[in-house]
Amino acid sequence: MTRLRRKALVSLFLFTLFIFGAMMGLRTLKPSDGFSDLAPGMGFIRERERDRRRLDAEDVAVSPGQAHGGSSSSDTKVVFTKSDRDYSIFYDVHIFYYLWYGAPGTDNKYIHWDHVLVPHWDPKIAASHAQGRHTPPEDIASSFYPELGPYSSRDPKVLESHMSQIEEAAAGVLVLSWYPPGVADDHGEPSEDLVPAVMDAAHRHSIKVTGETTGMFSTS
Question: Where are the annotated segments for Disordered (predicted)?
């Protein structure tokens, strides 16, 4: 038993001595001696860092409004400069926008906020559900209640507020749900005459505008 313990202690001592010697040897190595080969992933990390710096250097610094004429359509990120700060807009981020809402203060009635109650797809279940229409301003046809309340899409202040919020969200493209002149869905009214106001407001906030229906309406 004593001999076995002695062998174990000798083995442990030799192993400790080997580890100590290896560590001291590594401390004397320089990068040129091949130390970087011990961590092959470091080269990949450095390469990714160079790519990130290159992409940052390609960001275009322009003034508000130049996004519609000064930068190419292939740019997905543009850095704008205002008097107080720099901010970015990403033109590969799209937000859908609808012009069909109305309110008594502007339109003399609620439009689309009082949408009919959508029935359940199963007639047996639908028969036990309430029927009729939503009753604004408390009950509206929306899963979420807007911070501005049941607004009118024709209210210039609402439109300006929406464009400011979209700009703050760094979304660069407004996808407008557009109907041809005189056409509307079953629960709304024609709103094609609002398109110029939307485009002007979007332009003031360096936002591009396109249409929800491909090929029907597209501009920027």
Answer: 55-75
Question: Taken in order 135, 137, 141, 142, is the CA torsion positive or negative?
Answer: negative
DSSP bridge pairs for 133: 116
For residues 29 and 130, state if they share a domain: no
**Is 75 among the domain residues?**
no
- The 10s digit of each residue's pLDDT in 177-189 is 888 888 888 778 8
Contact 45, 63 (CB under 8 A): no
Say what the pLDDT of residue 43 is: 56
What residues have CB less than 8 Å from 154, skipping those under 6 apart? Answer: 102, 106, 107, 194
Residues ≥6 apart with Cβ < 8 Å to 99? 153, 176, 177, 178, 191, 194, 195, 198
Full residue range of the structural domain in which residue 7 is found: 2-54
CA distance 211 to 165: 20
